[in-house]
Every structure is written in structure tokens, then in C-alpha cells.
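Page 42, continued from yesterday. The earlier attempt failed because a stray header line got pasted into the input along with the sequence. Redoing it now with the clean sequence only.
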Amino acid sequence: MSERGSRTDRLSNKSLPVQTRLTRSRRPGSAASHSSRARRSQIVCVLICSDSLPTRPSSAAMSEQNSIEVFQDLVLRPGSGGLSAIRHSLIAHVTGLWSHAPDAEQILKRNTVLDGDVIAFQRKADASLPAAGLTLWSRADGYEVSNIVPREMGQLGYTRYNALLQEFVALIAQPAADASGFSVDVTSSNQSLEVVASPEVAAALRQFSGAANKSTGSTHPADRRRWMRFLILAHRGGQDLTPDFVARWLREVDGWDDESAHNLSIQFEFAQDVLQAYDEDGRP
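This time it went through. C-alpha cells are written below.
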């Protein structure tokens, strides 16, 4: 997994004044753009850092609103000036500790077979945030941040990653957009269960988790019935619910221990695969 990865403390422990909207995560593998971005993120990690996996957020960062912290996405959508206007305006508005990194762009282009343009930026470290590299790749409808990687430390985690992205938006992307007429689309840093699952599925998971013996998981007959009901409903209307989200929600929101949450997420993934295969088999 890349540093993104991922859904908070920000610069000076406060959010920068960035306009955000909550969007639904894409189901892994459901769109070509997502798989392309994943490949690009892997390439960026290999070229720029050797260890950039996300860390688990501390308990202090756990939301009181039944949501989990996630890596934010940033998409820049062109106006009348097209993609070239985005590139030129971003570079022209570089400021502060940020700088354009054309050498990194050449390395990325030379070592990939992916189509499209790449824009690379670097940020120097200060007391608030570590040194990092930020890369945008072009796509059919604009540019998107494929990854942000640390230049000197092993990993960023959700909070630092999002703080770096928000600083880039506040200092560079938004001023460039105001000057050139392109749009800035930033997703939320937190994601609730209802965003990735239908109300019925979310209620079923909460019912199981709230009633279950957290030391035995789904082994008690009553707990198992509630767990099975959730698995079936998730198959019918889980939308963008993933095993990773299930594990993190159980652990970070509802207080399950790491091992139990992990085991339940494995059960969830296996059940979804089995039910999907059953559906595709076409037999009653």
C-alpha cells in the first residue's frame, strides 16, 4: 500500500482554510483511473522513498463522530485554458518552503510507461511538517495528486499526509486556480460508515459490534447470526465498504482489539468473495 492511502491535527494543530467536500471512495479495481493511480503511487514510492507505509493513527486522533481518518484526494479540473494552464499556473505560484522539482519529473517520466503529464513539487522541512515530495499526474479530466512521500523520514501517516496536501492547496493550488480559472476538488479527511455503506448495512454492523462479546468475536451463536446478517447485507448493498475500512472502523471507532478486528475483516473479505462467486455462478 502506498502512503495514501491514506482518510485531525494540521499545521499548528488547526485545519487550513481549505474548502472541502465529502465524496465517496471508489471501490478498488472498479475504475481504470483508480488502478492507474495505484500504479503511479507505487512508482513514486519506489523512486522517491524506500518506506512510506501509513501508520495507525493514535487514539487521540480517533473521531468522536463514528468516522475514521483517511488520506485526502486532490483533483484539479481544467477551465478554458486546459491542462497546460494548470501546469503553468501551479509552477508560477510556488511559494514558501515549496519548490518545483523538474528533475523528479524527468526521473518519473524516464522510468514509467504511463501516458500523461507529471508535475512534481518538493517541500523543505520545518518545525511543523517533514520534508516531502508531492506528485500530480494528468488524467482525462485534470490532474490528481497520486502520492505525497516523505523525503527524510520513514512514513507520514494520515495526519501529516493530509496536512501537507492542505498546505499545498492553500498556498499554491487555490491561488493558482483563482488566477487561471481551474477548479480545486479536495475530499474530506474523515469518512463515516454511512459514506461507504447503505444505512441498512451500517446499522447491521453497528448492531453486531455493539452487542458482540469483543473478546470472542463472532463465535457466540447470537453474535454469529448478527455477523452473518451484516455479511449478507453488505454483499447486497455494501457499496464501497472494504475489508480495510471494516477493520479500522471496528478498531478505531468501536474499540475492538487489533487481532479481533483483523480477523473479522478477513472473514468479511472471504464472505464477499464467496457470495460474489455464488452470484456469478448463476445457479439457485
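Notes: Strands lie at 67-69, 74-77, 98-100, 118-123, 132-139, 142-150, 183-186, 190-192.
Reminder to self: strip header lines before submitting.
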